[in-house]
Automatic annotation (TrEMBL):
Domain PAC: 38-90
Enzyme class, first EC level, given as a word: transferase
Cited InterPro entries: PAC (IPR001610), PAS (IPR000014), PAS-assoc_C (IPR000700), PAS-like_dom_sf (IPR035965), PAS_fold (IPR013767), Phytochrome (IPR001294), Sensor_kinase/Photoreceptor (IPR052162)
Biological processes, Gene Ontology terms: detection of visible light; regulation of DNA-templated transcription
Keyword Kinase applies: yes
Name listed for the protein in its UniProt record: histidine kinase
């Protein structure tokens, strides 16, 4: 909005959605009391009613004598970043569901060879529940002695 449309208006009451008014007011009150707030996220609604995600940093504003004269707030539009985070989370959840419901055993190990993924088909085939295998060494604890070396070699070259 143009400056002349917002100057002199109550920021919290007029421009902040009702469910965030208390928390935004607390941030501003803290700034008036000398408490800096960094990286506070909240939605702001535009004149057209569009939601904008904002990252706010607020600090005390002082006059030449050091007296509190207001709050300086610096906001950044993080709408695109929040949308990308949500999309990444959705993709990760979809991938997790796909792995867990695959009709083939799927397992994962970290760089130390410790199990960090074990899908439902792996549970069905081995009889070991996911909770039982997580964090345990796949080759040393679950591969038969005759195949330990060859499986370890394959995994080390993966």
């Amino acid at each position: 909005r143009p400056k002349d449309e917002v100057m002199g208006h109550d920021l919290v009451a007029e421009f902040i959605s009702p469910d965030y008014r208390d928390s935004v007011k607390a941030v501003l009150d803290n700034a008036l009391n000398g408490i800096v707030t960094a990286n506070f996220e909240f939605p702001l609604y535009t004149k057209k009613g569009e939601r904008v995600e904002v990252l706010l940093n607020a600090t005390t504003r002082r006059d030449g004598n050091g007296n509190v004269s207001g709050v300086v707030g610096v906001g950044q539009d993080i709408t695109e970043r929040k949308a990308a985070e949500k999309q990444s989370e959705t993709i990760a959840n979809d991938l997790t569901k796909l792995i867990d419901t695959a009709n083939a055993p799927i397992f994962g190990i970290d760089t130390e060879g410790l199990v960090n993924e074990w899908n439902q088909k792996a549970v069905e085939i081995t009889g070991f529940g996911k909770e039982e295998v997580m964090g345990r060494n796949l080759v040393q604890e679950f591969i038969s002695a005759e195949f330990k070396d060859s499986v370890a070699a394959v995994l080390n070259n993966a």
